């Protein structure tokens, strides 16, 4: 099992330099192909707000397509030295960027995107990472905007024995094998600590059968679990956090739990999420 095909989601009007560089580093580590993707929605006009001039819409479309060509050139130039192949996907007329990326991601083993530092909503040039994650069926790696060099020495698994966590740890096996230190961490009530340690022993044995050495860390739960996760990740100098994503969908709205929201927005560490 490996990541033979990486897809990196880029954004119009944003600085994509660091994200492209990190995608290249991952491609080198896994000898992978890289697919660049960018989407843009047509100009939106709320119902009843009046008429949009056709020339204005055409100018907006032409501008978006020109920016996409520039971004493709940056993508190909920056990654021309990697061993794998490069390919490109773009659309300036997708009704939903999230749906467009999810549809194209069927050919990817891992989707790489920039972590948002705020509560997200999709715009004409920006996709909602949570919406993508809920539909993706692939692991998603989120990179802080300031991350230029990818370090994979210390990885922490935010564990609970749930379907989402089991999926996440399995999806992350190739990544975990690159680490020098793996921590299986769980935040749980005080009266659950003994049982949790027994469960961790089983998971650690399973990881060992995949040639991954891991240690266990259990933390007593408080009312501020998201804040506690941030503190632990900082104290441990975590480079990559692996976690299952928890949430639910209401028509077009994706609602994340507090812990998932913390991970989605983290600018401290890279994260790898599965749902």
UniProtKB/TrEMBL annotation:
It comes from the Bacteria. CDD domains: USP-like (cd00293). Keywords: Coiled coil. Residues 54-81 form a coiled coil. Gene3D superfamilies: 3.40.50.12370. This is Universal stress protein.
């Amino acid at each position: 099992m490996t990541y033979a095909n990486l897809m990196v989601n880029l954004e119009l009007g944003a600085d994509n330099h660091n994200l492209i560089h990190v995608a290249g580093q991952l491609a080198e580590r896994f000898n992978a192909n890289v697919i660049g993707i960018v989407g843009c929605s047509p100009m939106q006009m709320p119902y009843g707000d009046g008429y949009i001039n056709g020339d204005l819409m055409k100018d907006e479309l032409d501008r978006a397509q020109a920016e996409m060509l520039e971004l493709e050139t940056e993508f190909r130039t920056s990654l021309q030295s990697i061993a794998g192949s490069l390919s490109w996907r773009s659309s300036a007329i997708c009704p939903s960027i999230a749906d467009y990326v999810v549809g194209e991601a069927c050919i990817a083993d891992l989707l790489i995107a920039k972590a948002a530092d705020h509560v997200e909503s999709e715009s004409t040039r920006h996709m909602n990472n949570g919406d993508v994650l809920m539909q993706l069926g692939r692991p998603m790696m989120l990179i802080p905007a300031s991350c230029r060099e990818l370090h994979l020495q210390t990885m922490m698994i935010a564990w609970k024995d749930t379907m989402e966590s089991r999926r996440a740890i399995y999806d992350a096996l190739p990544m975990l094998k690159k680490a020098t230190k793996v921590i299986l961490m769980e935040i749980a009530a005080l009266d659950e600590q003994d049982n949790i340690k027994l469960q961790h022993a089983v998971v650690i044995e399973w990881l060992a059968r995949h040639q991954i050495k891991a240690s266990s860390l259990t933390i007593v739960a408080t009312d501020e679990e998201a804040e506690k996760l941030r503190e632990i990740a900082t104290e441990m100098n975590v480079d990559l956090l692996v976690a299952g994503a928890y949430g639910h969908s209401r028509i077009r709205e994706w609602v994340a739990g507090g812990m998932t929201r913390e991970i989605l927005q983290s600018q401290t560490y890279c994260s790898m999420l599965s749902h």
